[in-house]
Design a protein that fits this description.
Subunit structure (chain B): Heterotrimer of A, B and C subunits.
InterPro entries (chain B): Asp/Glu-ADT_sf_sub_c, GatC
CATH topology of one domain in chain A: Amidase signature (AS) enzymes
Strand order of the largest sheet of chain B: 1-2
Radius of gyration of chain A: 21 Å
Keywords (chain B): ATP-binding, Ligase, Nucleotide-binding, Protein biosynthesis, Transferase
Helix content of chain B: 25-40%
Organism (chain B): Donghicola mangrovi
Number of helices of chain A: 15
Number of helices of chain B: 3
Low-confidence stretches of chain A: none
Structural class of chain A: alpha/beta
Largest sheet of chain B: 2 strands, antiparallel
Structural class of chain B: mainly alpha
Oligomer: heterodimer
Mean pLDDT of chain B: 92
Protein name (chain B): Aspartyl/glutamyl-tRNA(Asn/Gln) amidotransferase subunit C
Radius of gyration of chain B: 22 Å
């Protein structure tokens, strides 16, 4: 058998059920891999004792014949998820020392399904970033390496992507507000799905932009994404925006048969100056789906170019409101006060010390666009354009399109620090292909389909109809089978 | 739309984030770049378009307005930087 930490969820699940391996052995293999991978800075709070305790309990359950889908499978948890008794600080200095008294719904569901949490994973502060460089823990590093440079694993779920790609865990949780699952998946040769808005409960996941945030799995294969999403999804009384819909058996829907499906190719996703490699990858992906029996049809999503500016009004606006709770009163950091400092100085100093530059920037942009006199010009305008962006997709689906194929990222992974001096807007452009479907609430999945000329992974993105993740996963499965991407990063860490 | 240092200071104050005076010009410049990027929304014709309030077509779930949980004073206070006698403690608010 290969090294246990290198197994997929499906392989490990089957081996556990056959009795070929125990959860304790799987967990031990991952813990050893994690301890040898500090150079990646992916796991920022390790919980080995808790993991082994849960692994033992999982082995008992399996022995007793009670083995739900995720039972005994070791996974990593993004630091954005509140986990009872385990530090949860959204990679922010303002939540230093915060240890929740409660468990997020999604991590609880995974725990109930028997999954074994190995620890908390690095990310961009409050999920605001596309390179994992805004983290209070320092940069997470991409296990893919082609020269002396350290590359970004993407963001904001950078630690999750790095950990899965480096086989530190069998899978990990992520969250996606503007591309934070799909972009890091594409940068690391892994699979990541952002489900339909409402599919997973947001309760207990530290909020960034509540109308856009969604939890999702980051995995080694499409099959694993199907298995893990099923365990994470479902209605929750504690989140009124979670959908009261049955969760299908997604794995059972993976037939690979996509004959007769209509795949839309949006012409607006081919901006001028698009890299030739990305264009070629996209064409090849379309050809693979066509060869599998799908019909390829050019479509138009005319408001695509306005998605990023819309996002950079709505997300900061919601963030400025959500992050108002970090005031030094109820949890986390409080600034040391000078004599004569009152409550306003406490708020202002606490927030100045606790938040990093990108988070402050977005809070203040959000404050500005919501302030008196600008609310209509910016915030309401953006909400109207958002309606139009969603309508573009609705029109495409109404015309018979089953899924949309697009690139996941404009480039392969870039070097850490290379964008440091860049304009913030330049970093925002990383989300150009991913952000549209957060605005429309749609499910999207990134699937690795090839390597660029430098030898770095590239991914394509499939976008599906609302609440039809099963069909979307099946199309992704067909693409995965056709692309046959099997490359792994060479171990240097 | 151009943001000057006075506006930047006002926004920082509204957001309750202390920004030193010598940082204000750089902050104003950043705002201008980001807002310049957002300005392109002005090109879009939104005549008669409703602003989105919910991305999902469904109505939010209702429930009875009753107490369903609670009684966790110790847990609620356990992460507070300063808690005394069952309360969150803050600097004096009223003179």
């Amino acid at each position: 058998m290969t090294e246990l930490n290198k197994l997929t969820l499906a392989e490990a699940r089957d081996a556990l059920r056959k009795g070929d391996v125990t959860s304790v052995e799987l967990t031990q293999a991952c813990l050893t891999a994690i301890d040898g991978a500090d150079a990646l800075n992916a796991f920022v709070h390790k919980t080995p004792e808790l993991a082994l305790e849960r692994a033992k309990a999982a082995d008992e359950r399996i022995k007793a014949g009670d083995a739900p889908a995720m039972c005994g499978l070791p996974i990593g948890m993004k630091d954005l998820y509140c986990t009872k008794g385990v530090a949860s600080q959204a990679a922010s200095g303002i939540l230093v020392g915060f240890v929740p008294e409660y468990e997020s719904t999604v991590s609880q569901k995974l725990q109930d399904a028997g999954a074994v949490m190995l620890g908390k994973l690095n990310m961009d502060e409050f999920a605001m970033g596309s390179s994992n460089e805004t983290s209070v823990y320092g940069d997470s590093v991409n296990p893919w390496k082609i020269d002396d440079r350290k590359l970004t694993p993407g963001g904001s779920s950078g630690g999750s992507a790095a950990a899965v790609a480096a086989d530190l865990c069998l899978a990990a949780t992520g969250t996606d507000t503007g591309g934070s699952i799909r972009q890091p998946a594409a940068f690391t040769g892994t699979v990541g799905i952002k489900p339909t808005y409402g599919r997973c409960s947001r309760w207990g996941i530290i909020a960034y932009a509540s109308s856009l945030d969604q939890a999702g799995p980051m995995t080694k294969t499409v099959r694993d994404a199907a298995i893990m999403l099923e365990a994470m999804a479902g209605h929750d009384m504690k989140d009124s925006t979670s959908a009261d819909l049955p969760v299908p058996n997604f794995e059972a829907m993976l037939t690979g048969d996509i004959r007769g499906k209509v795949i839309g190719i949006p012409k607006e996703y081919r901006p001028e100056g698009m890299s030739e490699e990305i264009a070629k990858l996209w064409d090849e992906g379309a050809a693979m789906l066509k060869a599998a029996g799908a019909e390829i049809r050019e479509i138009s999503l005319p408001h695509t170019k306005y998605a990023l500016p819309t996002y950079y009004v709505i997300a900061p606006a919601e963030a400025s409101s959500n992050l108002a709770r970090y005031d030094g009163v109820r949890y986390g950091h409080r600034a040391k006060l000078g004599s004569g400092d009152g409550i306003n100085e406490m708020y202002e100093k606490t927030r100045a010390e606790g938040f990093g530059p990108e988070v402050k920037r977005r809070i203040m942009v959000g404050t500005y666009v919501l302030s008196a006199g600008f609310y209509d010009a910016y915030y309401n305008k953006a909400r109207k354009v958002r309606t139009l962006i969603k309508r573009d997709f609705e029109n495409a689906f109404a015309a018979g399109v089953d899924a949309i194929l697009a690139p996941a990222t404009p480039t392969s992974a870039f070097g850490l620090g290379e964008m440091k001096s860049a304009d913030p807007v330049e970093m925002y452009l990383n989300d150009v292909f991913t952000v549209t479907l957060n605005l429309a609430g749609l499910p999207g999945i990134a699937v690795p389909t090839g390597l660029d000329s430098k030898g770095l992974p590239l991914g394509l993105q499939l976008i599906g109809r609302p609440f039809e993740e099963g069909d979307l996963l099946n199309t992704a499965y067909a693409l995965e089978q056709a692309a046959g991407f099997v490359s792994k990063p060479a171990k240097w860490w | 739309m151009s943001i000057d240092t006075g506006t930047a200071a006002k926004v920082a104050k509204l957001a309750r984030i202390k920004v030193e005076d010598d940082q204000l010009p750089a902050l104003a410049e950043e705002f201008n770049r980001i807002l310049g990027f957002i300005e392109q929304l002005g090109e879009v014709d939104v005549e008669g378009v409703e602003p989105m309030t919910s991305v999902a077509p469904q109505r939010l779930k209702r429930r009875e307005d009753v107490v369903t949980d609670g009684g966790y004073q110790d847990k609620v206070l356990s992460n507070a930087p300063d808690a005394r006698e069952g309360f969150f403690a803050v600097p004096k608010v009223v003179e």
